[in-house]
Design goal:
The chain is of the alpha+beta class. It is built from 5 helices and 6 strands. The protein has 2 domains: 3-101, Jelly Rolls, CATH 2.60.120.10; 127-171. Strands 1, 2, 3, 4, 5 and 6 form a 6-stranded antiparallel sheet that branches. Helix 1 crosses helix 2 (101-126) and helix 4 (149-156) packs across helix 5. The protein starts with 12 loop residues before the first strand and ends with a helix. The mean pLDDT is 92.
Length: 172
Amino acid sequence: MSEWQAIFDGAPVTTFDTGAAIFRREDPVRSMYLVRSGSVALERPLADGTALALSVARSGMALAEASLFADTYHCDAVVRETAEVSILPKAVFHATLRDRPEIALGLIEAYAHTVQAQRTRIEILRMRKVSSRLDAWLDLNGPPPEGHWKSVAEVIGVSPPALYRELAKRRS
């Protein structure tokens, strides 16, 4: 566990079922969240009724960290896979960062890695071919664990069938 995650030690843990909303766009930001298990997507509802997935938080990841200094959320947090989430009042989170600079530095380091990962993802998404996107992702990450190719498709911005076609070509 990273040092910044210790902020959540003793915080209540709530279980959310798949499809549940932890918060909605324009709700006031009152809490900070740490996903303990499962996955939660930050989604922005679009005019056509679909949702744009901005990111997916999994075990050990903060949820909606960009809202740390916001008054309201800019998206919905929707549970994709039953999740256990630690919830801490925003004021307690801020106070801990003020009083424990080593934890604040750990959080800055974690967010810096997140920014690097997002920049890499943007560059992968700019590639036109599925094969190029997959090559870039594999060069950086290696093959995923068994049964996780669907999440690779999501990260590189292609449909699972398009990814599976590419993988089939490579097996031939």
